[in-house]
Specification:
Blueprint lengths: L1 E3 L8 E8 H6 L9 E5 L10 E2 L10 E8 L5 E5 L2 E5 L4 E7 L1 H4 L3 H19 L3 E10 L10 H15 L10 E7 L4 E8 L4 E3 L24 E7 L2 E9 L2 E2 L2 E2 L5 H20 L12 E6 L5 H12 L4 H5 L1 E4 L9 E10 L4 H10 L1
């Protein structure tokens, strides 16, 4: 089902800004909403702003990352199966929510169904290339009948990638997967017409190459991606990043050291990104979401970030802190982020991404 607002534009480029809930809603006055947004602690009833159903731990309250399709005079909204989406004909932001209690299916089956409709959405909307995915599932570390629920999710997700003929290993999209304490299995996704450039972290084993001790199917994501969002600007989209070196968790039980290790991993990903084009990214400029397992640890995590970057660094000032479980029970904190810088991808980098797609 589609709802069309106007005629299409061929010159759309993306812009993203982090705003308070009040400032985000103010953009929709006059009956014309922004392209789309991802909300943190925001109401469920805003059609263009799917929310993350997690408790906000930040002092500034509900926030949103608002995506603007600049130069577009046409926005369509619609549904494909269980997926809801908005597109300007070039970019697409979608949302899926599945209530396990109502669906009466296991998590692997629900993840498979969700991703099947996600890929159908991309095909039908003409935005074939995933740029970034956000996954939120209740009780991520709980036992799901002999297999941890995150591992069940990985089974269904990867099977859907295989069935759709999508890259489930090298070339997989940037993504995160967090455990929420209530609500539905929720997936948010950003897609476009141009293939992003996947990035890995040289300090870590690629998630899709984890040994079988982490489950029968490996997680399906790259550590980050570079996306040409138009108007001479490149977006760096960083997946959920935690205190992992190689494939092993380090600094067990120490949230401060886990945060420091996470920052080192972010720096490594940024260095890899800076080597792939002329855009220059930095840790201090990231807009990040910080997921904290234990709310009492929030201040310690904040102090480590501010000590590393300075309290006035954009990353420190604009960070959104959410209560969430991390995909491993021994991880206490995870950070995902995005930033944008002027520049271009090296020609060989862009060509490689297109050939993978």
């Amino acid at each position: 089902m589609r709802v069309q607002d106007a005629s299409p534009s061929s010159s759309s480029h993306l812009r993203v800004e982090r705003l308070s809930l009040a400032d985000s809603l103010a953009l929709a006055t006059g009956g014309k909403a922004p392209f789309a947004a991802l909300g943190y602690g925001t109401p469920n009833g805003v059609a263009w702003m799917p929310t993350v159903n997690a408790r906000v731990l930040s002092s500034h309250g509900a926030m949103a990352d608002v995506w603007h399709a600049m130069g577009a005079d046409h926005i369509e909204s619609g549904t494909t199966g269980i997926a809801r989406w908005r597109t300007d004909g070039h970019w697409l932001l979608g949302a899926i929510d599945l209530d396990e209690a109502a669906e009466k299916q296991g998590l692997a089956e629900l993840a498979h169904r969700a991703y099947r409709d996600l890929f159908k959405t991309l095909d039908q909307a003409g935005a074939p290339h995933l740029q970034r995915i956000w996954n939120y599932l209740p009780q991520i570390n709980a036992d799901g009948g002999g297999l941890e629920r995150y591992r069940q999710f990985n089974l269904g997700r990867q099977e859907a990638f295989f069935e759709a003929g999508r890259a489930a290993f090298e070339g997989a999209p940037a993504a995160c997967a967090l455990g929420i304490h209530q609500g539905a299995l929720s997936i948010r996704f950003l897609a476009g017409q141009t293939a992003p450039v996947p990035l890995e972290n040289p300090r870590q084993v690629s998630a899709y190459r984890y040994p079988e001790t982490y489950g029968p199917r490996s997680p399906t994501f790259s550590r980050a991606a570079l996306s040409d969002i138009g108007d001479g600007r490149i977006a760096l989209l960083i997946s959920g990043t935690a205190s992992i070196v190689g494939h092993e968790t380090v600094h067990h039980g120490d949230v401060r050291e886990q945060t420091r290790e996470t920052l080192r991993n972010l720096e490594a990903v940024i260095a890899a990104a800076n080597a792939r084009g002329t855009a220059v990214f930095s840790l201090a400029q990231l807009d990040c979401v910080v997921y904290v397992r234990h709310p009492a640890d929030t201040e310690a995590v904040r102090e480590v970030i501010e000590d590393a970057l300075g309290a006035n660094a954009p990353m420190a000032r604009h960070a959104v802190y959410l209560e969430a479980d991390i995909c491993r029970s021994d991880l206490l904190v995870e950070i995902e982020a995005h930033t944008v810088a002027p520049g271009r991808l090296h020609p060989t980098t862009a060509a490689t991404a297109e050939s993978r797609a």
